Amino acid sequence: MKNCSVLVVEDEVAIRDMLRMALEIADLRCIEADNIMDAHAIIIDRRPDIVLLDWMLPGGSGIELLRRLKRDKLTEEIPVIMLTAKTSEDNVIQGLDVGADDYITKPFAPRELIARIRALLRRSGAMPSSERIEAGELVLDMSSHRVFLAGEPLAMGPTEFKLLSFFMSHPERAYTRSQLLDQVWGGNVYVEERTVDVHIRRLRKALQNDMGDCSHFIQTVRGTGYRFSPPGI
């Protein structure tokens, strides 16, 4: 597998050190910059596969660099995750409107960040998508359209399979029922949001056999929806 490169643009040394360790453990190559001028030069010269971009930086804000990247044909396709202590909805919307592919607020769990990085790298093509997605002893095989737990096949319906496939491809991210309907059922299909709850219950039941139980991987996020969070990502 290609050793994907991640540019970390962050002026706080302690956070950079933590991110470098997390990225290296995940077999991702870390490149570092502490201001937007150096970051832009590195992006042009070294073409990282993804950029982790802090919002507040010396010499200009991360949002300024993001605008610059998205205006340039040479850099507009590079995925960008915003790292920010700004949690208000307006700030999040601003970052996404400018072109950020994702955002994560400080403080954050390194495991969650690595999961989001891998998902973005797969979608961008920098990290090849596997026909098999694994989470512990749970394995989803796209080519055969089958799911295995501890080597034993699980029985589940087509909607539950699509739901699990989406969750396993996007771990550690909470999705509303409306978002799940759009992603799994399709935006042109009218289905009531409570239908999601029915299929979540069916999926949790299907994720159990005599060899084990992975139903707890599907977590309910109060006030939001659901998240796929297997241990040890």
Automatic annotation (TrEMBL):
- SUPFAM superfamilies tied to this protein: CheY-like (SSF52172)
Determine the domain of life of the protein's source: Bacteria
Main localization is cytoplasm
Gene Ontology CC: one annotated term: cytosol
Location in the cell: Cytoplasm
Q: Which UniProt keywords apply?
A: Activator, Cytoplasm, DNA-binding, Phosphate transport, Phosphoprotein, Transcription, Transcription regulation, Transport, Two-component regulatory system
Gene3D superfamilies in UniProt: 3.40.50.2300, 6.10.250.690, Winged helix-like DNA-binding domain superfamily/Winged helix DNA-binding domain
Name one molecular function that GO assigns to this entry.
phosphorelay response regulator activity
Q: Name one GO biological process term.
A: phosphate ion transport
Role: This protein is a positive regulator for the phosphate regulon. Transcription of this operon is positively regulated by PhoB and PhoR when phosphate is limited.
Q: What is this protein called?
A: Phosphate regulon transcriptional regulatory protein PhoB
Recorded source organism is Aequoribacter fuscus
